[in-house]
Design a protein that fits this description.
CATH architecture: Up-down Bundle
Structural class: mainly alpha
Bound molecules: fe (ii) ion
CATH topology: Four Helix Bundle (Hemerythrin (Met), subunit A)
Number of strands: 0
Distance between the termini: 16 Å
CATH class: Mainly Alpha
Length: 164
Amino acid sequence: MAQAPINNPILALSKEHRFILEQMAGVEAVLKQPDAEAMAAHLRSIESAFMPFVEKHFRFEEEVLFPAALEAMPVGPTIRVILQLTREHGEFLRWARDLFAWARSSRRFEGLEGAVRRQDIKAGIDLIRQHSHLEVTDLFPRISGNPRCCQMIEAVLARGVTGF
Ligand SMILES: [Fe+2]
Ligand SMILES: [Fe+2]
C-alpha cells in the first residue's frame, strides 16, 4: 500500500495505522498455525513493504508530530504520553527486526517454540495495537484540538525540509 498523501496529517496517520494493523492481523492469523515454516514465509512476504512503511510512519511522528505537540502543549499528560509512545516505537522496531531476521535465518527450522517464542510474537502484535489505540484516542485528539499545534505541523510540512 502506498503511503497516503499528507493533506491532513492526523487523518493520514490514522489511515496508515489501518495498514499496519492489517499486516499484524495477517501475522497473527499465521501464528495460529502450528507450522513455523508457514509463519516464516508469511513474514518474508510482508517484510519489504512493511518495515519501510512503519519506519517512515514512526519517523514522521517523532520528527514532526511529537516535537510540535511538545512545543504547543508542554504539560504533564502530553509529555508522558509522548515519552511512552517514543519508547514503544523503539520496542516495536526491535521486536519486528528480530522477528523478520528469524524468518530469513536458518534458525527458523528450530520451530516457533525454539528461536522465536509464540508468546513473544503475540506480545509485539499487542504492543502495536495498544500503541495505535493510544495515539488515536489520546494524542491525536489533543493535537487536532490545538490549532497552534496543527499550524506548526502544517508549517513544517510546507517547508518540505523533512522529506515527508
Ligand atoms: Fe507511533
Ligand atoms: Fe502512529
